[in-house]
């Protein structure tokens, strides 16, 4: 929170936002590079497991690291792609260019932010199994049919209480009808 507030205040007071946007592009590039390095190191460990004996927990951790890196790679690329477009549009605002290009950059920035908000959650959803399960549970709860309890003609509750109670109730009703 402190970092976000500090950067936000500095961004709004600065005469030029080029440093901020270049910093964001560099941070995105570093995230992609570090994730690739992490993935390659874990893949190296995985392929060395033929020659080196790893415990079951270490092999599990290595495969989980590789899966996480592959998942994170797609997410980082989608986030980074939109961040580069948005930051490039923001950089254009700092230069003396015709108003038409500034307006085009503004529309491109707004459109990229809209697509970012729509596409990144979809990419995250497609890459994360736990999120898929959570959303499925939420949707199942939303679309569960609402069934009201069974009532007799006179409004008495006829809810099922088990086979024995139902049998007793059936024969009592049958006996009442025979009288």
Automatic annotation (TrEMBL):
InterPro entries: 7TM_GPCR_serpentine_rcpt_Sre (IPR004151), Serpentine_rcpt_epsilon (IPR052854). It is found in: Membrane. One of its GO terms (biological process) is sensory perception of chemical stimulus. GO terms for cellular component: membrane. The keyword Ribonucleoprotein does not apply. The chain crosses the membrane at residues 75-93, 105-125. Keywords: Membrane, Transmembrane, Transmembrane helix. The keyword Membrane applies. It is a multi-pass membrane protein. Belongs to the nematode receptor-like protein sre family. This is 7TM GPCR serpentine receptor class x (Srx) domain-containing protein.
